[in-house]
Amino acid sequence: MKTIFCHIILFYLLCGLASCTYSKQFTHTYYQENETTLRSIRERFIQLYDKNPFSLELKDKYLNRIGLEIHTDSIKYIYSFRLDEPNFLDTLHKYQFDVKDMIALIIDMQKTQCTWITNLDYYEKWQKKFLVFISVRDKKLTAFLKPEKYFTLAFFDQPQPYDEKERLLDNEDLTKNRLINGAVFRKVNDNVSYALTGKYR
Amino acid sequence: MLILCRYKKTIILLGLFFRCTFNLQASPVTLPNDTTRISTQQEAIAFLDSLQHLDSSKHWPNVDPELFLENLKTFATTPLKFYEGKGTNFCAYSALTYIPLNYDPLGFSRFMITLYQEGKARLGKVWIKPSAAIHREAGLLKYKGALDISPAGQIWFLCLADHFKGYLNLFNRRFHKDDENTLWASTNFAKFNRMLRRLFPVKVHARGADLIRPWIADIPTYLNKRSRKGPIFLYLNNRLLYKKNHVATRFGIPTHFVLLLDIQETDRGRINIIYWDYGKKTLQQVNPRLLRKIIYGITDYSIKKD
């Protein structure tokens, strides 16, 4: 009787652990598997952004609803479209986006389950710099009894410092961790860092 | 009578809750007059230019005087670029800064210069005397976007958050490192309206509450009518306006203050709202249902003429 009771407890403990842990494998392998596409997303985004600053969101789990933020000098426009809606293309034409490149960017984002891409500005030694911020929404990052997490990637132009635990450091004060959107980021490689966060932006 | 006596404590507690939560019809209706300016941008620039040079202040050891002066000139010339910083809880303080920068840029510049030189200064009915922790922290906020290079903005936000307290600040009243992102800096609706009344010569008319939306039948028409007289402040549920995760929000609470500049109905039944936050004007298209759902507080004001 006692043995059966112990087995039941052990079974529930294992179930609990399995359901409450995110797949560690995901964070290790995702970037390697999708590196080429992610690099292409970043480069295409920078090219489009240089002509027309914007941020892009794939809103729903089917990745068919678009959130488009267009930044001009004086005003930011926030639009929401379905991909098959004619208004979407009309808007791209109106703001003189390269439609072909934009569609290719969206297709790449759908392929890699990217839910959000933007350019974040930051200052180092009073100089303005940018990093490309990408959030990934994947089924493997959801767990029973735990809120959904996002795999967020920060692409820097220059190599960044990391501590011995591979956490991103503040370039101006190497004793401090550098937080992005309130999260500690870890090393993917010298120019790319990642974090698992509760928010995609 | 017996029932009243038995539930006296509950009734008192409920009364206190509603006293804290509701802020309906705060003061008599007065229409804002956007042309009532106390000073002009040119006067502010002339005053700042006349200073030529500012010595570093012992009260603000981490603030560069040249940059501070440069910031004040930028505030006077481009008030809508005033930026609250990424990830901070400074949105309320940033929204209300529209009033001094637009109606009295000279008064605001004088106040900031006094605050810098003497470590304390008076604005409206308030003596701003920041704590030692605030004096030390101003100039050190980092990775907040353009706020990093705006020590004047940092001083202003930190001083306001240090001085004004509401029930949201009850458990975190003293500043500690990184508190700009925590409840220490947050603002509830009553505190926001109180700040307006005490800092500036304005009559404030507020509708709404922290947890319950205002009882207005046709919000777009109401906002349209009010915003024709001048900008109005909105207290919003930002989790619906700017979604940051895919969780369906059942229990909505407002967390963000913006300045509504204009509202227009489109021919397809949607509504364009033009508001100011994060140092920029934003035009966002929403449906009327969402607009109704996100608005918890509406504050308009008029400048007192005396």
Question: Can you walk through the features of this model?
Answer:
The complex is a heterodimer of chains A (201) and B (306). With 201 residues, chain A is α+β, with helices and mostly antiparallel strands. In chain A, 34% of the residues lie in helices and 33% in strands. Chain A is built from four helices and twelve strands. Chain A has helices spanning 2-20, 24-51, 86-94, 99-111, and strands at residues 54-58, 65-71, 75-82, 114-124, 127-136, 150-155, 169-170, 173-177, 179-180, 183-184, 186-187, 192-197. In chain A, helix 2 runs antiparallel to helix 4 (99-111). The radius of gyration of chain A is 20 Å and the shape is globular. The mean pLDDT of chain A is 87. Chain B has 13 helices and eight strands. Mean pLDDT of chain B is 87; it is low at 1-5 and 15-33. In chain B, helix 3 (41-51) runs antiparallel to helix 4 and helix 4 packs antiparallel against helix 7. In chain B, 39% of the residues lie in helices and 17% in strands. Chain B has helices at 2-6, 8-21, 41-51, 65-77, 91-96, 98-103, 105-118, 132-137, 151-163, 189-199, 219-227, 238-241, 288-294; strands at residues 121-123, 126-128, 202-208, 232-236, 256-265, 271-277, 280-286, 295-303. Chain B has 306 residues and is of the alpha+beta class. Chain B starts with a helix and ends with a strand. In chain B, strand 5 (256-265) and strand 6 form a beta hairpin. Chain B has a six-stranded antiparallel beta sheet with strand order 3-8-4-5-6-7. Chain B has a two-stranded antiparallel ribbon with strand order 1-2.
Write the layout of secondary structure elements.
The complex is a heterodimer of chains A (201) and B (306).
Chain A: H1 2-20, H2 24-51, E1 54-58, E2 65-71, E3 75-82, H3 86-94, H4 99-111, E4 114-124, E5 127-136, E6 150-155, E7 169-170, E8 173-177, E9 179-180, E10 183-184, E11 186-187, E12 192-197
Antiparallel strand pairs in A: 1-2, 1-4, 2-3, 4-5, 5-6, 6-12, 7-8, 9-10, 11-12
Chain B: H1 2-6, H2 8-21, H3 41-51, H4 65-77, H5 91-96, H6 98-103, H7 105-118, E1 121-123, E2 126-128, H8 132-137, H9 151-163, H10 189-199, E3 202-208, H11 219-227, E4 232-236, H12 238-241, E5 256-265, E6 271-277, E7 280-286, H13 288-294, E8 295-303
Antiparallel strand pairs in B: 1-2, 3-8, 4-5, 4-8, 5-6, 6-7
Helix pairs in contact in B: 3-4, 3-7, 4-7
